[in-house]
Input
Amino acid sequence: MAAAQVQPKLIIHGGAGSAIKSKEDIAAVRQCLYKVLEDVYGLLLSGATAQAAVVRGCHLLEDEPRFNAGTGSVLQSDGQIRMSASLMDGANQRFSGTINVSRIQHPIDLAQALQNASDRVLSDYGAAELVRELQLPIYNPLTENRLQEWLEERQENFTKKMAGVVAESHAGRGTIGVVALDNQGNLAAGTSTGGKGFERIGRVSDSAMPAGNYANKQAAISCTGIGEDIIDECLAAKIVIRVTDGLSLSAAFERSLQESQQNGRDLGAIGLDATGAIAWGRTSEILVAAYHTGEQMGDTLEWTEDKLTGFVTHIP
Ligand code: GLY
Output
């Protein structure tokens, strides 16, 4: 007898602040997120695995220039783009990723290609070699907006300390992420980023670590925000482990985000559990996220006064 199918669930994010600077940006960002949700949710309904759905969602978000991943990635201190991404399949609890890769359209493709490899996280030279092995076309993810941002900030950097420039940069919190539950009840999470912007060469992002992207059979989480803060909290793995140890997804989010806030962190996270519960939370001012329950789509983009609402929110 065939196993009973479960209702797929999906949540995606476009970072913790880079995409929205005013109330007017909300409609455009919402439209973009909902388009991705519709596409990827359709795939889940047709029976795609959580892993395939996550990769598809990451492709679409990496292609959207308003988000800091793939096309539209921010530039590092030397004016180069180096991207990082990871994929975790909850069914076999397997993490793979790439760190500081250049000149490809979809960094998540490298993470996926490494899912069944014996060496599963590759950085700069190794990642470049894998790009050649896979014969992925050379692609320049630079956009005019990102170049202008870098040129302006670089100019100010002649009079400011680098740390100040990084702290003030909106792009510093940008990332994209996708978390899916498929109709077999399997979970997966994927996260991709251009990094903080203006960082030192060789700086490693949380997006290619279990701190920023983690999944098992019970829960799956993708994070955004300042990578160092996410690493210090080990946020994605912490939430997943709390659910595995018996907390509900919402309680795991509440506890973990409260700790993050007490520790003065600047971050956000989205997640699902195996029961189909959806949750997100942030200590950052903004979390750009949207979800599909099967019955409806919703998002975090409700503007009140001068910032977006919601510390931790969940849908059972
Ligand atoms: N969370 C993205 C980064 O800090 O690199």
